[in-house]
Structure formats: C-alpha cells, structure tokens
Design goal:
Shape of chain B: globular
Largest sheet of chain A: 8 strands, parallel
Structural class of chain B: alpha+beta
Strand content of chain B: 25-35%
Helix content of chain A: 25-40%
Distance between the termini of chain B: 32 Å
Helix content of chain B: 10-25%
Strand order of the largest sheet of chain B: 5-4-8-2-3-7-6
Number of strands of chain B: 18
CATH class of the largest domain in chain B: Alpha Beta
Order of helices and strands of chain A: EEEHEEEHEHEHHEHEEEEEHEHEHHH
CATH architecture of the largest domain in chain B: 3-Layer(aba) Sandwich
Largest interface: A-B, 38 and 35 residues
Order of helices and strands of chain B: EEEHEEEEHEEEHEHEHEHEEEEE
Oligomer: heterodimer
Number of strands of chain A: 16
Strand content of chain A: 15-25%
Radius of gyration of chain B: 18 Å
Largest sheet of chain B: 7 strands, antiparallel
Number of helices of chain A: 11
Shape of chain A: globular
Distance between the termini of chain A: 31 Å
Chain lengths: 304, 269
C-alpha cells in the first residue's frame, strides 16, 4: 500500500484528505455510507461560544457548477459540542479539528480554552465566515485584526492553530503573512466567495440571508490561485480547498502547494467523493512510481 | 405502536437503470428505475437524491419523493416536474441509462393500526409521495378518501393509479373536472362527514398551512410532507431547515422530515 501519510500543524494524518468544515456535519451522517475513519482528518462544523440558531431559510441556492449557502453557523455551542458530539467524533480514530467561530477576539479565546484538553487535535479559526453579519468578516479581512485574534488564541491554548482565510480580500498573501507571523501553524485556503442570487419570479433575493458563500467547482480556479500564491510566501503548510470533486482536482491543489486538501461541497454531488480521492492519490503514486507523494507538494512552482 | 415499516434503513447508493420515462401533462414525468435494494428498504414519505448530469453542472442532486414501489419487480418510481436544469436532464434519460440514486432518506409518513379512516390530500405535484402511502395503507385495510387538486384537469396526476387504493375525488381551479374550486374547498366538504383518523398531505406551502390550521382547530392529526432546497440530504449540512414550532430552533427537512406532524413546524420561514 502506498504511504500517503502527512503531518500538518503537528497533526499526523494517514492521508492528506480532510473534510471541509460545515459540509460533513460531525461525521455521523456519513458513517452509514463509508468508514469515516479512513479520512485524513475530520473538521467540525463551525463552533460558537453560545448555541447559535443560524440563518432563516432558504439557506441553499444552486448556481452554475456550485452552490450558495447561508447556513449561518447553526450549532449547539462549544459546551454541547464537547459533551455531546466530540466523544462520537473521536471514536472514528482520526484527528478531529475543531472549526471555531467567535464574534469577538475574546470569544475566540474562550472557545479555544474550552476545547483545550478535550482531545481535539487542533483548532481551525474561522475568521472568514461570510454568512454572519457581526464581527466575523471584519476580523478576517484586515491583516492587523486577524493577526491580533490569532496571537490571542495561540497564547491561550496548547493546541495547534490553523487559520481559515477568506478569498474576499484584495491581497490574500498579506493576510496569510500576517496570521503566520502571529503564530498560525497552518492555513486553510479558501473559505467561500461572497455571492448572491435573485429569484426573477418573486423579484427577491433567493437566500433568507440575502448573501451567501459560493462553493463548488465554480470557485476552484480561485482557490488554486490562492494556494499557489500563499504557499510560495509562507513557510507553514497550506490546506487547499474550494471545489475539489475528483482525485485530479486534489492533485492540482497539491501541485499548487497544498500539503493537504479538504473536500466540501463535493459530498453533496457524491457522498463518496473523499473516499474516491484517497484511492486516486494512492493509484496515481503507484502508476507514476512516486515513492514519496510529498514531492508533489508545490511541484508546479518548484519545478519551474 | 407506530409503524414506519422499515424505518432506520441506512441509505446507500443505487446505480438505478432507467426502465421507463413517461411524459405526463404539465411538464410532469413518471420515471421508473430498477433499484431492488431501494425498493425493499424504503417507506412511504421517504425520498431519494438523484444525481443529475455528469459534469458537475447541475451540481446538486435532486430530492424526489418515492412515488411508487414494486418490491417483487425491484422497481421504484418517481413523479416529478421538469422545471429546472436538473429535472430537465432527468426527463431526458431513457431506458438503459443509469442514474445514481441515494436513498432511502428522511422520515416518512407514520401510521399505526389497521382499518382506520385516512384522508389523503395532494395538491398538484403533491400527489407524488401519496400513491406509495395509499398503497401501504390500503394494504393495512385502511379506508381511504384521496383528494387531488390541480389548476386544470391535466394537472390531476395519476388518477387511475390512485383509484385502486381508495375513493378518489378531484377538483380543478378552471372547472375542467366536474368540481370547480381549490383542494381546500374539497377538503372542507370531506371533513364535514367526520370520522377521520389522520390527514396526510403534500403540496404547496400555502395549502399545507391551511391544513395545519384545520388540524389544530378540529383536533384531527395531520402529517404534511414539506419541500425545501436541499444539499446533502443526510442531515449534515443544515441547508434545508424549517422553523420548529416547539423550540426556537430549526428542524432539518431531510432528517426530521420531510414528513412532519402538522403542529411540529412553522412554515413561514
């Protein structure tokens, strides 16, 4: 069997294929379809300090080769997560990365503290959710503010901190550099692109929240570009995500500089997408006689 | 005890071969596929997600309720309207084509006992999940009155199939059937006769809301099948929610539904 192991932010994974926050629930829903324990890592839905209801429906709108979503972080809050959801997630035997979303710096710190020592393998800071009006977005778009949040969380926890960045900025490299300097151990690229759709019959926005985050194959080139730019600038690993549906897509991200990839919306098209991508990567390495798949990371810019 | 025949059956992927695609009126189609394992596992009111297209556009699968099942022949039928890119693609599939079908999904209609009196209310395409239910309830010796309404006579879907399982009554808004009016007019008339154990309904939200009100006022239990834009179909993404009537939160149409007790959800968004 091909060795697909990799380490991201000190988290050891059996393969580089993770699930993207929000699309995979807490694993339970998919566990009846396949062995969730064969993934590289699980990433939780966004966790807030207090229980959060989320946005009013409709929350989903299909768009060309993708979809808009405005779920708005519906979750039971960090305490319920730790007591009711995490035990089951740990049972799959793969690292659980908690995606956390504060509305202020102080909230991020408090959530991080409550997750420290619970058995989660790391934190993914969601400083880029496009679907929540207060705080969230501003924290993630201004490099200085983003760095402040990251620094505060890093100081408050022993867990490795991964930062998920939004593409809805002028200069994603500057943002990446700022949070790296603040102590991030890895970066997740990219969150959804802010978008909207209007129903021409009702002449009103489709989504209850008016705007939402665009994901799916439609955004893949934007994500590949972001991974390409950022991975050449920072010296921490990049987790690539954004429209990855097939093994070939995952490979494209790895060649662009991703040390791991996350599969999100593809699950809606094909619930077995992540499984098929893992098989593809193994087969690709065999067929191309690649001894260490990690040689492929950033090969597109390393071998210029 | 309540029976939901095979509830708890895990969903799986079925490479369903198209057996028949029949064009009905008003852009509606009756699609029958070979899916023996799905046929065995599914209960009335549940649905499946059908993959549409092969190049990630359309990207999402389409949630379609199970219209009819023939366990012996291993066949499952879907009744749907070709209104967008996904369902139009589906409507072009022909015998021999294979469609990825994920199911069974969701919580279907609940029923208990036998020999009861049921009122089935299907407005337009709302007829879709009711035929399978009618088949099941008739098998349990329920006495059924089935109300189907449409804008025109052509909008009354599969009347012949329904007639096999109970007394069928139809109404159209344009009067192209003997009775002219709305499905609610027909329902009010039927309710006056009394003695109903349960109302089962599917159709536009406006109709379901009226039925919620009727159930509340008369005390007759009602179950409604709700439609919402959907992504994962498994309860993971929280995309297809409906406001809960009992708490301040939301219920997932794909998991706690699509069939809700009338008093369980608020349909105003």
């Amino acid at each position: 069997m091909v060795d697909l192991t990799v380490e991201v932010a000190g988290i050891k994974m059996q393969n580089p294929v993770m699930v993207a926050s929000g699309t995979f629930g807490c694993g339970e829903e998919y566990s009846s379809l396949f062995d969730v324990g064969s993934l590289g890592a699980l990433v939780t839905k966004g966790i807030t300090l207090k229980p959060w209801q989320g946005n009013k429906p409709p929350r989903i709108c299909e768009t060309p080769a993708g979809l808009l979503n405005a779920v708005g972080l519906q979750n039971p809050g960090v305490d319920a997560f730790v007591h009711e959801i995490l035990p089951g997630m740990k049972g799959y035997g793969v690292p659980v990365i908690a995606n956390i979303a504060g509305f202020t710096k102080e909230e991020f710190v408090e959530i991080a503290k409550r997750l420290t020592g619970t058995g989660v393998a790391g934190l993914e800071l969601n400083i880029s959710c496009p679907n929540v009006k207060a705080g969230g977005m501003a924290l993630g778009t201004v490099p200085e503010l983003a760095a402040e949040v990251v620094e505060a969380v890093v100081e408050s926890t022993s867990l490795p901190v991964i930062v998920k960045l939004t593409p809805n900025v002028t200069d994603i490299v500057a943002l990446a550099q700022a949070v790296t300097d603040a102590g991030a151990r890895a970066l997740s690229l990219i969150n959804t692109l802010l978008g909207m759709a209007i129903d021409i019959k009702s002449r009103r926005p489709v989504l209850g929240n008016v705007m939402g985050g665009l994901s799916g194959p439609a955004i893949r080139p934007v994500a590949v570009r972001a991974v390409w730019q950022v991975s050449q600038t920072v010296d921490i690993p990049v987790i690539g995500m954004g429209g990855i549906c097939r093994g070939e897509d995952a490979l494209e991200f790895i060649l662009a500089g991703a040390t791991a990839v996350a599969i999100g919306s593809a699950h809606f098209h094909d619930p077995w997408a992540a499984m098929k991508i893992i098989s593809f990567l193994g087969r690709y390495c065999e067929e191309n006689e690649i001894n260490d798949w990690r040689e492929l990371i950033g090969a597109a810019w390393k071998n210029k | 005890m309540e029976t939901g025949r095979k509830t708890g059956a895990h969903p799986s992927e079925h490479a369903a071969g198209v057996l028949e695609q029949i064009a009905l009126a008003s852009d509606c189609f009756l699609l029958t596929v070979a899916a023996p394992n799905l046929a065995r596992a599914v209960s009335p009111g549940q649905f499946a997600l059908l993959g549409c297209g092969t190049v990630f556009d359309p990207f999402l699968r389409r949630p379609l309720s199970i219209h009819q099942v023939d366990v012996e022949r291993g066949e499952v039928s879907f009744l749907y309207r070709a209104k967008g890119a996904g369902t139009q693609w589906l409507s072009q599939r022909r015998r021999g084509d294979v469609i990825p079908v994920l199911g069974p999904l969701g919580r279907g209609f609940r029923h208990s006992g036998s020999g009861k009196k049921g009122l089935l209310v299907g407005a337009g395409l709302g007829a879709a999940p009711l035929l399978f239910l009618a088949q099941e309830l008739a098998g349990r010796k329920w006495s059924l009155v089935i109300l189907l309404g449409g804008r025109t006579k052509a909008g009354i879907l599969r009347p012949d199939a329904f007639e096999r399982f109970g007394t069928l009554k139809t109404i159209t808004e344009d009067g192209s059937t003997p009775k002219k009016g709305t499905i609610i007019d027909l329902l009010q008339e039927e309710l006056k006769k009394g003695g109903w154990d349960t109302i089962y309904a599917c159709g536009p939200r406006a109709v379901l809301k009226v039925i919620q009100g009727i159930s509340c006022r008369t005390g007759i239990p009602a179950q409604i099948s709700v439609e919402e834009r959907m992504a994962c179909g498994l309860g993971a993404c929280l995309g297809c929610v409906c406001r809960s009537a009992h708490s301040s939160g939301y219920l997932r149409v794909c998991k706690e539904g699509p069939v809700f007790d009338a008093g369980e959800v608020l349909l105003d968004g």
